[in-house]
Amino acid sequence: MKYVTRVIALLCGSAVVTMVIAAMGALVAMFSTSGDGAARTEELWGAVYFQVVPAADGGTDVDASMGIANGWMLFAIFAVLFLFMLLVSVIYDALLRRKQYLLEAARKGQHDVRSNAATINVADSKATQNQVDPGHKVR
Fold first, then answer.
1. Per residue in 56-65, pLDDT tens?
2. Residue 46: which domain range?
3. Where would you find the membrane-spanning parts of this chain (predicted)?
4. How many domains are there within the chain?
5. For residue 135, is it within any domain?
6. What is the DSSP string of 60-109?
7. pTM here?
8. Which of 7, 38, 81, 128 is an S-S bond match for 14, by CB 3.0 to 4.6 Å?
């Protein structure tokens, strides 16, 4: 159940961030439209657009509209955000589990928390070096 609620939270978070990105893209399209005639500007790889058309009465008024031009591109942005958030969540959980393991091991005295490497006996390492072929270079 913990993972289901996490995935639902990540889906909601990805949806919110995608909506914010789409709104920002529409604003960028709005402010990058230039010229007096009809113009259509697309942003976010064609996902959102802003369109200006002269009014039908022929005056100085214009009709402006904005919206979603390509829903698949917004879905791709949503999917990339979801996968990124999922990856960050999995890495965070793994780090928390590792921290708990190290704290429990330190309490029991089984592991030195400061050095994550195993303790090497100096006499054993010298004996191992002497067993190497004389013609083989040791790095």
1. 777 667 788 8
2. 2-108
3. 7-31, 72-92
4. 1
5. no
6. S-EEEEEEES-HHHHHHHHHHHHHHHHHHHHHHHHHHHHHHHHHHHHHHT
7. 0.68
8. 81
